[in-house]
Amino acid sequence: MRRNKVIGRDRRHRRVRKKIRGTAQRPRLSVYRSNRHIYAQLIDDVDGRTLAAASTMEPSMRDKASGTVEAARRVGTLIGERGKDEGVTAVVFDRGGFKYHGRVAGVAEAAREAGLEF
């Protein structure tokens, strides 16, 4: 059962990635959700480099619960601030094959509130 879920998510992610591509002016905001943590990266696909990253694995986030919508919102705020520091104002959102719901939506909403446009 678990294997089918992973394969399905991978297929959805590949289908989305065919259509979107991050650039230096408008990087891809990629979100990955595991059972315990959530990760977000701003990626320039043209140069193949990560401009900024945030996750619940960071020492500043470790003292609080990491698998909640509130933790996802903290990650979204952090990636928004780090993106602004890099001079990024607009991004392309990549939900990573996950439903736009719960923690994934929490990252997106907090990043918008922090100043990223998508």
Search tags:
single chain, 118 residues, alpha+beta, Nucleotidyltransferase, domain 5, four-stranded mixed β-sheet, 3 helices, 4 strands, globular
Molecular structure report:
This protein has helices at 2-19, 69-85, 103-113; strands at residues 28-33, 38-44, 49-55, 92-94. It has 118 residues and is an alpha+beta fold. The chain has one domain: 2-Layer Sandwich (Nucleotidyltransferase, domain 5), CATH 3.30.420.100. Strands 3-2-1-4 form a four-stranded mixed sheet. β1 and β2 (38-44) form a beta hairpin. The chain starts with a helix and ends in a 5-residue tail after the last helix. The mean pLDDT is 94.
* Number of E-state strands: 4
Helix content bin: 25-40%
User: What's the helix-strand series?
Assistant: HEEEHEH
Q: According to CATH, what is the class?
A: Alpha Beta
The fraction of residues in strands falls at: 15-25%
In the predicted model, the low-confidence regions spanning at least 5 consecutive residues are none
CATH topology: Nucleotidyltransferase, domain 5
The tally of structural domains comes to: 1
